[in-house]
Specification:
By secondary structure, the protein is an alpha/beta fold. The protein is built from ten helices and 13 strands.
């Protein structure tokens, strides 16, 4: 067994959440504590009753998630919210969440891990907010055919991405910012990429991508954000010699 406080301290030290100006309900860090020790980790994109139940079934007592428990108003703790909290407490299950810090980490982050999965191991910081990078970009020595990139994304993500083919057929500078960055195409262009990979975006970005001369791949919000929690859980498991499991509960979005 390992002390929960030690696991949390290591994760906080790696991800440095204090550097990020996140959504004020993201609550990066430990959201629910347990009795003080960890015997097994479970990683999931979202903290929900469905993933919590599966973490309990797997024998985990610490969940590492990207989207935590406080995205919407959570008071009062009655009905389903009370049932969720009761389930956590009765099963001694702690919840640790990191949002933007787990998007932008240069090694463990969603964008960096997706880039590596695509074979783009030489990548640089990208998509800056308040002086902090939330993504990565790669400049390819040999430009990649846009259709080939679509195929590689399909393999990496497990489903075909949506392509907005507004840019060149050969992709030279590719930027990645996972999740819901589709409404920020202008920033991607301003930072010099010709191809932008993210999770999702609104309908009007189709015309905007054409106006900006930018290729956009929407890989799915959920699908592009499975990488960071897996990498963090794996790193913690190796550091503290703990077993871990990934709970796959796709939203389809």
């Amino acid at each position: 067994m390992v002390k929960l406080a030690e696991v949390v301290a290591s994760a906080d030290a790696w991800l440095q959440p204090s550097l990020f100006q996140d959504y004020d309900r993201a609550w990066n860090g430990l959201q629910v504590e347990n009795g003080g020790t960890v015997i097994k980790l479970a990683a999931a994109v979202d903290a929900s009753m469905a993933t919590i139940n599966r973490a309990i079934e797997a024998g985990a007592n610490l969940m590492v998630v990207h989207h935590g428990l406080f995205w919407s108003e959570t008071r009062p703790w009655t009905g389903r919210r009370h049932a969720l909290l009761k389930r956590l407490i009765e099963n001694d299950l702690a919840v640790y969440s990191q949002h933007l810090p787990l998007d932008g980490h240069p090694r463990l982050g969603n964008a960096a891990q997706l880039a590596s999965g695509l074979g783009f191991n030489d990548h640089q910081p990208f998509f800056f907010r308040s002086g902090v990078s939330l993504g990565v970009q790669s400049t390819l020595a040999t430009p990649m055919d846009r259709d080939q990139l679509a195929l590689q994304l399909r393999v990496c993500l497990g489903s075909a991405p949506i392509l907005l083919p507004g840019g060149p057929t050969l992709c030279h500078r590719i930027g990645i910012c996972t999740g819901g960055a589709g409404s920020e195409l202008a920033q991607a262009v301003a930072e010099g990429v010709d191809t932008f990979i993210t999770g999702e975006g609104p309908h009007w970005t189709h015309a905007l991508a054409e106006d900006l001369g930018l290729n956009v791949f929407y890989g799915g919000h959920y699908a592009t954000e499975t990488f960071g929690v897996k990498a963090l859980a794996s790193e913690l498991a190796a550091t503290f010699r703990l077993p871990w499991t990934f709970i796959d509960h796709p939203s389809g979005l």
